[in-house]
Amino acid sequence: MPAFIVLLIIAVAVCYFVGGKKCGICGNGGELKQLPDAFRGIAHAHRPFNNKTSDYYCSSCAPKVAEQEKLVMVARNHDPVQTWPATYKGRIPVVAGSEQPRVHSDWYKEKKVAKGQLLLTCVYLFDRANAVKDIEFDRKTDSEGNYQFTVWRASGIPCKVQ
Hints:
Number of strands: 6
Structural class: alpha+beta
Oligomer: single chain
Largest sheet: 4 strands, mixed
Strand order of the largest sheet: 3-5-6-4
Strand content: 15-25%
Shape: flat
CATH architecture of the largest domain: 2-Layer Sandwich
Distance between the termini: 80 Å
CATH topology of the largest domain: Translation Initiation Factor IF3
Helix content: 25-40%
């Protein structure tokens, strides 16, 4: 008899932890869908619903997700963004009052990928931005087992130029 009770407790625990998927936005259950892959191009700190508790959303949150996905796709199809490194000494024709707070990408093994994510994130966050100035790269050493490698993070100031 005690073995049956132990099995019953284990079965209840498994059902509770495995079967308890909920919407990461509102916490409701029901029919769930996975959040779109389109959000992965945005720096994690600025992704839509980045404080979520799961990668799923319910039908009542679908309009919010669709709206954010549309904004991400608009950012992806944005005109090319002009860039200036932090070492640039010339004049940049920035529209007065258009500078935004510095934005950072996630850490990547390649500088180009970090810069690409920075540009997409800037356009997603500030739809009027058509340039990023003072671009800098931070680097650090990361490792996987005995293999050590350099990872890069890009940062810059989104702005609008004439």
